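Subject: Predicted fold for Clp R domain-containing protein, 193 residues

User T.R. writes:
Posting the sequence so we have a shared reference for the thread.
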Amino acid sequence: MFERFTRGARATVKGAVARAERVGADSVTEEHLLYALLEQEGGRAAFAATALGLPDRRASLDAAFAEARRRGGLTKADTDALADIGIDIGAIVSRVESAHGEGALAADRGGRRWWSGHRAFTPGAKAVLENSLRVALGRGDRFIGEEHLLLALTAKPGVVADVLAEHGATYATVHRALYGPDADGGQGHAKAG
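User M.O. replies:
I've generated the structure tokens; pasting them so everyone works from the same file.
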């Protein structure tokens, strides 16, 4: 599939790997893909991200991702569903952190990379890459560009899509920023997955 990626999309994937290495993560996540996209300049995704104000909200994005990691990677939907049955995630996180230290529930705390030197992609990051192909094909595009990666990040339910939505970047708003208000949403099968 990587042969279908444009130069910019390849740079984004390589940037995500480099970002994972810089922060000492064991694997490449959707968050790393998003930040690598935000570091790209001059492409359609960079234009859409700028139009939506994402680069100007890096501190807010950082805080939202840190809070999600603190909750053990639970999405807003997960937290709300648990609250509906009487489980207060905030209280659980506080109790765990009081017993085991701040960030005790954070994912990707290290451990297995020492022997391989290789950072695999998480299942969620792989799903984003696969979904970017669906997005591209759904639009009739032969190649996968950064814009398809950005749309795939907003389409895949999870922490990254939640954080992006909190910052005004939903599938619909990103699509409008990329293709204009009159463009067909292409959301049929492109969002599946």
